[in-house]
């Protein structure tokens, strides 16, 4: 706890006057968000009365997670610095993941009542967090209420177990748009992810997006697949593959990072999602140590340009090749050091406009040694990722950093000044990453002095509390000791 408090103090002081509190939910743009992606049934069981025979050990069945569980564990998600949670499809469904929709007009009662959904949403909104839900446009249950009543609307899906809608049919398009708009109005969710739309016509998707936003202008609409439609975030599988290749092991081919840039709309950044194998699996297969791998990867995830999306259970290094193995019921046996690191980097991102929305430039990228700059007119950061098996040095030029600056590391407390030859020499141990705030080299380092005093005061206070409790214990024992 002391370590986390000191880290938070130090982070705020390092950013100094350039730091601003994260914008409120109403003011945030898509680039201000960081998303924790989960499924209602697989997160936490907060109300047993809606279990309906749920079995937490059945990988294929319902495990009991619900809206009440999401509300109860709100602080758990918020403590990691996430500003939004994505909860998957929540319609009446034949499967735990919500994809086999039975009715777009009804919420799955295993997940909770309409009242419990509204209570959960209200709790997240009061905590200044957003809630996103999925709207499947295909891959629904053959028993969907539309399947029997509307001839010609349904077409067989590739897997033979679900059905798709004929998205070229005008009546189907109108019905889906009406259902999506009704869902947004009824629930008050902050965002909708459209899924399973195959090769649907872009004009249809754009019409759905437009009508959703007409209902709620602040509603975020995004997708689970690449599309030319006017989504608020772009989904690019090449970016996920680039991130996976660059961080799955030491000394990797990190050349894919060269493609990362600021885009409009911004790209989603993720190492895995609910439809892929878990990224940790690749680490394990290569005999890597997942917590160390993830600390390096998470530093990049929350500082590269785009919108970071982290799949639930990453903080406990969940593995798995395919669903349902990739969708375990969250056990919350968290690696505290990894969870705190995610919280630290994510929280710094929340405080820094430059790390969320600032310019980006890749300064160096070779064999897992990556350096890049994020900046705006108020602040400049340099991020160094040493994803190699040896200690490495990166020399940055005066042209990139400026003259007479100093670079202060966020995690290692290292201070780098300009060398006589003009460059800035940054050294990092193997398998580590750090953020450096660029400051004016004015001599006395007031933020550092204040941070040192606060750290010392915190430590002395801790020692004093331990001594005082020990003294009180001794007095209590003396008081109850029988007289000879």
Task: Summarize the SSE layout with pairings.
Elements: H1 2-15, E1 35-37, H2 67-72, H3 74-79, E2 84-86, E3 91-93, E4 101-107, H4 114-126, E5 130-136, H5 145-149, E6 154-156, E7 163-165, H6 170-187, E8 191-195, H7 202-215, E9 220-223, H8 237-247, E10 268-269, H9 279-285, H10 290-301, E11 307-311, H11 336-351, H12 353-357, E12 359-366, E13 369-375, E14 380-386, E15 392-396, H13 398-401, E16 405-409, E17 415-417, E18 424-428, E19 432-440, H14 446-480
Q: What percentage of residues falls in helices of 4 or more residues?
A: 25-40%
CATH class of the largest domain: Alpha Beta
Q: Please give the alpha-carbon distance between the first and last residues.
A: 44 Å
CATH architecture level-2 label of the largest domain: Alpha-Beta Barrel
CATH homology superfamily of the largest domain: Glycosidases
Average pLDDT works out at 90
Structure description:
This protein has two domains: 23-357, Glycosidases (TIM Barrel, Alpha-Beta Barrel), CATH 3.20.20; 359-440, Sandwich (Immunoglobulin-like), CATH 2.60.40.1180. It has helices at residues 2-15, 67-72, 74-79, 114-126, 145-149, 170-187, 202-215, 237-247, 279-285, 290-301, 336-351, 353-357, 398-401, 446-480, and strands spanning 35-37, 84-86, 91-93, 101-107, 130-136, 154-156, 163-165, 191-195, 220-223, 268-269, 307-311, 359-366, 369-375, 380-386, 392-396, 405-409, 415-417, 424-428, 432-440. The longest helix has 35 residues, at 446-480. Residues 1-9 and 15-21 have low confidence and may be disordered. By secondary structure, the protein is α/β, with parallel strands linked by helices. It starts with a helix and ends with a helix. Helix 1 runs antiparallel to helix 14, helix 6 runs parallel beside helix 7 (202-215) and helix 10 runs parallel beside helix 11. The radius of gyration is 25 Å and the shape is globular. Strand 8 (191-195), helix 7 (202-215) and strand 9 (220-223) form a beta-alpha-beta unit. The chain has a seven-stranded parallel sheet with strand order 9-8-5-2-1-11-10. Strands 12-13-14-19-16-17 form a six-stranded antiparallel sheet. The chain has a two-stranded antiparallel sheet with strand order 3-4. The protein is built from 14 helices and 19 strands. Its cofactor is Ca(2+). InterPro entries: Alpha-amylase-like_C, GH, GH13_cat_dom, Glyco_hydro_b. Residues 37-349 form the Glycosyl hydrolase family 13 catalytic domain.
């Amino acid at each position: 706890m002391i370590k986390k408090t000191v880290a938070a103090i130090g982070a705020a002081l390092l950013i100094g006057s350039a730091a601003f509190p994260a914008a409120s939910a109403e003011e945030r743009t898509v680039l201000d968000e960081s998303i924790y992606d989960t499924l209602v049934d697989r997160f936490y069981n907060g109300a047993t009365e809606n279990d309906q025979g749920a079995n937490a050990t059945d990988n294929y069945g319902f495990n009991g997670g619900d809206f009440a569980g999401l509300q109860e564990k709100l602080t758990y998600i918020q403590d990691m610095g996430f500003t939004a949670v994505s909860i998957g499809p929540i319609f009446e469904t034949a499967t735990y993941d919500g994809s086999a929709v039975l009715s777009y007009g009804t919420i799955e009662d295993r997940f909770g009542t309409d009242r419990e959904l509204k209570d959960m949403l209200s709790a997240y909104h009061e905590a200044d967090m957003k809630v996103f839900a999925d709207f499947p446009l295909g891959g629904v249950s053959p028993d969907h209420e539309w399947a029997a009543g509307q001839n010609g609307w349904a077409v067989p899906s590739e897997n033979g177990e679900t059905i798709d809608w004929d998205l070229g049919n005008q009546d189907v398009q109108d019905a889906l748009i009406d259902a999506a708009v009704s869902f947004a109005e009824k629930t008050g969710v902050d965002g909708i992810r459209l899924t399973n739309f195959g090769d649907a016509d872009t004009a249809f998707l754009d019409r759905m997006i437009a009508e959703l936003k007409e209902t709620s202008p602040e509603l975020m609409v995004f997708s689970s697949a690449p599309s030319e439609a006017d989504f608020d975030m772009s989904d690019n599988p090449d970016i996920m593959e680039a991130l996976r290749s660059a961080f799955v092991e030491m000394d990797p081919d990190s050349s894919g990072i060269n493609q990362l840039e600021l885009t409009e709309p911004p790209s989603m950044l993720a190492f895995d999602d609910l439809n892929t194998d878990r990224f940790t699996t690749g680490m394990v297969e290569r005999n890597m140590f997942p917590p160390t791998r993830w600390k390096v990867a998470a530093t990049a995830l929350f500082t590269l340009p785009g919108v970071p999306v982290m799949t639930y259970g990453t903080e406990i290094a969940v593995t798995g090749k395919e669903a349902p193995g990739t969708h375990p019921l969250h056990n919350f046996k968290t690696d505290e050091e990894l969870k705190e690191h995610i919280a630290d980097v994510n929280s710094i991102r929340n405080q820094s406009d430059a790390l969320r929305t600032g310019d980006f430039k890749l300064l160096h990228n070779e064999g897992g040694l990556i350096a890049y700059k994020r900046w705006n007119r108020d602040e400049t950061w340099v991020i160094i990722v040493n994803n190699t098996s040896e200690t490495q040095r990166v020399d940055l030029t005066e042209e990139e950093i400026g003259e007479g600056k100093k670079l202060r590391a966020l995690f290692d407390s290292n201070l780098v000044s300009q060398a006589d030859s003009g460059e800035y020499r940054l050294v990092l141990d193997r398998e580590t990453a750090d953020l450096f705030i660029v400051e004016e080299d004015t001599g006395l380092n007031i933020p550092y002095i204040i941070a040192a005093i606060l750290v010392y005061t915190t430590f002395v206070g801790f020692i004093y509390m331990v001594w005082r409790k020990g003294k009180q214990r001794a007095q209590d024992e003396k008081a109850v000791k029988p007289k000879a």
